[in-house]
Amino acid sequence: MASSKLSAFAMAMVLSALLIATIDMVNASNLDVWSGPGCNNRADRYIACGCHDIDPGLHGGWAFSYNGPPAFMYNQANCRGVSVRKLSRGARDCNPFPWQSMFIQC
Length: 106
Hints:
This is Antimicrobial peptide 1. One of its GO terms (biological process) is negative regulation of growth. Residues 1-28 form the signal peptide. Keywords: Signal. The protein is α+β, with helices and mostly antiparallel strands. The protein has a single domain, classed as Gamma-B Crystallin, domain 1, CATH 2.60.20.30. The protein is globular, with a radius of gyration of 18 Å. It has one helix at residues 2-27; strands spanning 30-34, 43-46, 50-53, 61-65, 71-74, 85-87, 91-93, 101-104. The strands form 2 sheets. A 4-stranded antiparallel β-sheet has the order 2-1-4-7, with no helix packed on it. Strands 3-8-5-6 form a 4-stranded antiparallel β-sheet, with no helix packed on it.
């Protein structure tokens, strides 16, 4: 009986952790990038926390949806060097951009 209560408790903890992780993903900030010209054609979305290299073919335009975590933009791959811009509110620019990578801080 004690082991079944422990198993039920463990299962409840796992489900709680999954629910929290899902809520965090729904509330995460994200960056959409397009191949261009402008904010058109092929696109990709970067949503997970951490560093992301931006596809070199997707520098025609961008839109950032701010939902809490800010993003830091880098002109070098792998988030190397110094961040050249911090995105901490919603923004959009349908012109080419130089960023090679981004870091979503969570």
